[in-house]
Write a structure and sequence with these properties.
Keywords: Oxidoreductase, Pyruvate. Its EC number is 1.2.7.8. InterPro entries: IorB_Oxidoreductase, Pyrv/ketoisovalerate_OxRed_cat, Pyrv_flavodox_OxRed_cen. The protein is α/β, with parallel strands linked by helices and about 200 residues long. It has one domain: Pyruvate-ferredoxin oxidoreductase, PFOR, domain III (Pyruvate-ferredoxin Oxidoreductase, domain 3, 3-Layer(aba) Sandwich), CATH 3.40.920.10. It has 8 helices and 6 strands, in the order βαβββαβααβαααα. A hairpin with a 7-residue loop joins β2 and β3. α5 packs across α6, α5 crosses α8 and α6 packs across α8. The longest helix is centred in the last third of the chain and has 18 residues. The protein is globular and about 45 Å long. The two termini are about 30 Å apart.
């Protein structure tokens, strides 16, 4: 899958719930990749401005022409909410890799009793039928430990950057956090970075 010596062609699919910061996380990882010398194409697949709606975006590394990703094409799925990870599985290629939060944010249909939220066991089991690796992390809990629940997104980004699957590592993400995030958010996000890296190897 090498495009050139420096460029590694990768397709990453992000999915989460409105209000979680999924698009902010996409932008941060895109900037990290750009600063690391990668050819980057990013775009929103589907988004709803209101809190609670599904938000999906893509990040393509290594010289793609458009931010288009079809079913069964993503090399990596980043799920910021476990049910959305499950719903996003059709986008993952067989043998792809999943990094997901294990902290549920039940949709309105579940809150109203019109639908049931699947168990984490079921979500993980179905994920393993498609993916070669699955990493389900306690992102919210680790984010709170780092100083802010929203820093849970950085836990997930840190895990994927520490995995060795991307053409850049955890140091590139650290530099991007220091460069692009507001000063008041940096301490919690840098701590979340450490916790995400550690959680991957537990």
């Amino acid at each position: 899958m090498q495009h050139s010596d420096k460029q590694k062609r990768l397709r990453i699919f992000f999915t989460g719930v409105g209000g979680q910061g999924t698009l902010t996380a996409t932008t941060l990882l895109a900037r990290t990749a750009l600063d690391a010398g990668q050819d980057v194409v990013a775009g929103e697949v589907h988004g709803m401005a209101q809190r609670g709606g599904v938000v999906e975006s893509v990040l393509l590394l290594g010289g793609w022409r458009s931010p288009k990703l079809d079913l069964g094409e993503a090399d990596i799925l980043l799920g910021f909410e476990p049910l959305e990870t499950l719903r996003g599985l059709p986008y993952l290629r067989p043998g792809g890799v999943i990094f997901s939060s294990r902290d549920p944010m039940p949709p309105l249909s579940v809150s109203l009793g019109m639908a049931e939220y699947p168990s984490m066991e079921e979500i993980e089991q179905k994920s393993r039928t498609v993916a070669s690796q699955c990493h389900f992390l306690a992102c919210r809990e680790l984010g709170i430990q780092a100083g802010a629940a929203q820093a849970g997104n950085t836990v997930l980004l840190a895990a994927v950057c520490a995995s060795g699957l991307l053409p850049f590592g955890i140091d590139a993400l650290k530099t991007a956090i220091e460069k692009y995030l507001p000063a008041k958010l940096q301490a919690s996000n840098l701590k979340a970075l450490e916790l995400g890296q550690a959680a991957l190897h537990m």
